[in-house]
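Human: For the file, kindly provide a plain-text protein record giving the amino acid sequence and the C-alpha cells, at your earliest convenience.
Assistant:
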Amino acid sequence: MATTNASTEGVVAGRLIGSNSTFSNDGSQMSNSEDAIWILSCTFIIFTMQSGFGLLESGLVSKKDEVNIMMKNAIDVIVGGLSFWLFGYAFSFGDGVDSLRGFSGGNRFMLMASEGDTKADAGTYYARFFFQSSFATTATTIVSGG
C-alpha cells in the first residue's frame, strides 16, 4: 500500500473544494495578487488574438472593406464586453439563487459585490472578470468573422 502525505492531501482537498486560495508546489499558500498577475497576463495574451483576427479578416477582403472589418471587430469588443459586464459574468459565475435552482447565477450583475466580500476578494473578481471577458469577446469576433 502506498503511503500518502498529509500536506499533499490538503493541497488536493483545497483545490477540489474550490477555495479562493491556491498552493505552490511546496504546499505553501500563494497570495491573491500573484494569482491576479498571472490571470491578467494570460488575459493580455488572449486579448491580442483580437488584433490577429482583425488582421486576418482584413487580409481576406478587398481594400475598401478593411475599415469596415476593423470597426466590426471594435464593436464586437465593446458590445460583447458591455454585455458580459451587464449579464454574462453574473449568469456564469454569480451565486445561485433559490428561484433559479442553481442553474445559473443570480447575483454579481455589473460586478456588484455580494454580502461578505472583502476588498481582497474584489481584485480576484476583477481579474477573473477580465479573463472571462477576453474569452467572450474573442469568441464573438470568431463567430462574426468575415
The chain is about 65% helix and 0% strand. The CA atoms of residues 29 and 81 lie 32 Å apart. The chain has two domains: 1-30, 31-143.
